Amino acid sequence: MTLNDIAVQTEAPRTQNLLPIMHEIRHSLSELVAHGTHNMIDLHSLPLAPQELAELDEFLGDGEIDLTLNVLGKTRIRESSYSGVWRIEHLDDSGKRIGYFIEIGMIPEILRSQCDDIKEGLQAMTSILAMQEDAS
Predict the structure, then answer these.
(1) Do the beta carbons of residue 75 and residue 89 sit within 8 Å?
(2) Rounded-to-5 percentages of helix, strand, coil across the chain
(3) Is 64 domain-assigned?
(4) pLDDT 10s digits, 5-59
(5) Contact of 37 with 31, CB cutoff 8 Å
């Protein structure tokens, strides 16, 4: 047996950021309950080893909602097992993650309708109903 025959596994060094992030999520959830405060944590900009991201995913677990938006690329929104804690992943055209957020709130901001969009919808509905009334 030579040194080349010995299997070696390497792992990225742990950053020690996982536990503080978990506490920040808990604090943000507490603020949501107490004051309705919405918060977002940008995981993509924080140094985390792959095994720490896997441990965070395990800690958060899976909730009931898992959906994909197709707007300027794909965005995957997953509820965690803790209501009010959401994982938001933005992917490029090749499926590579380009943004990863933990959002703490009643509903992810990306799902909220914008006021201008609501106004346009109201105008469109009003026009359609007016045309139907004129036709009858």
Answers:
(1) yes
(2) 45, 20, 35
(3) yes
(4) 666 555 668 888 899 999 999 999 999 999 999 999 999 899 999 999 999 999 9
(5) yes
3 occurs within a structural domain: no
Domain of residue 63 covers: 12-135
CATH code at position 25:
3.30.1370.140
User: Structural domain tally of the chain?
Assistant: 1
Q: Answer yes or no: is 20 within a domain.
A: yes
Residues in contact with 71: Cβ distance below 8 Å, sequence separation at least 6, in sequence order: none
Distance (Å, whole) CA 13 – CA 133:
68
- Max Cα-Cα span within the chain: 90
The predicted-structure confidence for 48-104, as pLDDT tens digits, reads as follows 999 999 999 999 999 999 999 987 789 999 999 999 999 999 999 888 999 999 999
